[in-house]
Each structure stands twice: as C-alpha cells, then as structure tokens.
Amino acid sequence: MQMAKVSSKYQIVIPKKVRETLGLQPGDRLLIATEGDKAVMRLRPRSYAEHMRGLHKEVWQGIDAAEYVSEERKSWEQEL
Predict the structure, then answer these.
(1) Residue 19 Cα distances to 37, 51, 52, 54, angstroms
(2) Is 42 in contact with 31 (CB distance < 8 Å)?
C-alpha cells in the first residue's frame, strides 16, 4: 500500500509506483468515489461506450431481442 499526504490546498501527489502501475499520464482524469471510510480512485474511461460494451451480456443470453421487445409492446397495449 502506498501513502499520500493531503496538502493545505487539499491536493495529493500520486506515488510514482501507482502512476507507473496505472500508466497515468499528465492530464489523465480520475474518478473518485467514497466507499465507507475509503476513497477509491479509478481511471476515467477514455470512451464510456467502449467501457460499457458487453456489460451484463449474460443477462440476455438465450433471449431473442426482437421477440422480447414485441412481447413488451403487447403487454403495454393490454394495460391500456
């Protein structure tokens, strides 16, 4: 685990080993979230579309998308 110090301007320096491991370059953006008492930093995806491609694809395995949409539309008509 690496350590960083918060400056009086609330800035931190990311340790060299971490920068090298993540391949960080000047100008890269990081996403920061809190999880309980932790701050978690992640590299911002260069393309959110690419990052999310295939996400949860296992949910749709074995389902015909056209048939699914057709059934959904029929259910909407029945509710009216």
Answers:
(1) 23, 21, 24, 28
(2) yes
How much is the pTM?
0.53
More confident residue, 36 or 57: 36
In angstroms, rounded to a whole number, what is the distance separating the alpha carbons of residues 19 and 63?
Answer: 42
Go through the chain and tell me how many residues it has: 80
> How far is the C-alpha of 68 from the C-alpha of 28, rounded, in Å?
41
Q: Identify any residues that bridge with 40 across adjacent strands, giving them in sequence order.
A: 33
Span 51-71, pLDDT tens digits: 677 778 788 888 888 898 999
In whole angstroms, how large is the CA radius of gyration of the chain? 22
Tokens at 27, concatenated:
């100008």
Q: How many whole angstroms separate alpha carbon 44 and alpha carbon 42? A: 6
